[in-house]
Design goal:
Strand content: under 5%
Shape: elongated
Pfam family, one: FCD
Organism: uncultured Microbacterium sp
Oligomer: single chain
CATH topology of the largest domain: Four Helix Bundle (Hemerythrin (Met), subunit A)
Keywords: DNA-binding, Transcription, Transcription regulation
GO molecular function: DNA binding; DNA-binding transcription factor activity
Protein name: Transcriptional regulator
């Protein structure tokens, strides 16, 4: 029978991949059978995911996948802007010659993905770039915070890449971050990252009226 850590990891991954939709009920008995775990283990996994902000526990109604509104996504991204800037600055301080080669390879691949209009590939490279910067920075507390925030933001991040023209806007921002980090310029790296995440916030703000209109249509 699966233990708590296994069930939590598998359920978390399923939520992030969209297997369970926002506001979908998470029925303990069904999940316990699906993951081969006891109800006790499953319940503890749900409590842990609720603490991470991925699951919502409702009194007398059980658990469901938590829906993150655009307004909340903007607030989360404002926090992320400050933490990501710290990570970029620290990466510029710590980067080795070998790690510069890795970042430059990601940069080349990102250029090619945009040129070939490979949006999914570009999205994957975006995740890889930010993860690589966190690894180079070696800032444990920042990494833990960002992993939690990014888990809550995964659906909105995917939507951002579907915004027409968004990759052509974000690519130069990413290239500026890579240049500053590879040049070991801590101030420029932090500023470039803050500017990039600020651009994400502006794009999310443009999506907010769209979501409000969709909510009104659903209510009607």
């Amino acid at each position: 029978m699966a233990d708590k850590s296994d069930v939590r990891a598998e359920l978390r991954d399923a939520i992030l991949r969209g297997v369970y939709a926002p506001r979908q009920r998470l029925i303990e008995a069904e999940l316990a059978e699906e993951f081969g775990a006891s109800r006790f283990v499953l319940r503890n996994a749900l409590i842990s995911l609720a603490a991470e902000g991925l699951v919502e526990l409702q009194p007398n109604r059980g658990a469901r996948v938590r829906e993150i509104s655009v307004a909340e996504a903007i607030e989360i991204t404002e926090i992320r802007r400050a933490v990501e800037a710290i990570v970029a600055g620290r990466a510029a301080e710590n980067i080795s010659d070998e790690e510069i080669v890795v970042l430059r390879r990601i940069e080349t691949d990102m250029r090619a993905a945009v040129e070939q209009n490979e949006l999914v590939r570009y999205s994957e490279l975006n995740v890889s770039l930010h993860r690589t910067l966190r690894d180079i920075a070696g800032h444990g507390a920042a990494t833990r915070i960002l992993e939690q925030l990014n888990g809550q933001m995964v659906r909105h991040q995917f939507r951002l890449f579907l915004v027409p023209g968004r990759p052509t806007v974000s690519l130069p921002e990413h290239l500026a971050i890579v240049d500053a980090v590879c040049n070991r310029d801590t101030e420029a790296a932090s500023a470039a990252m803050a500017a990039h995440v600020g651009s994400v916030i502006r794009t999310l703000s443009e999506l907010a009226p769209e979501q409000r209109g969709s909510a009104r249509a659903t209510a009607l």
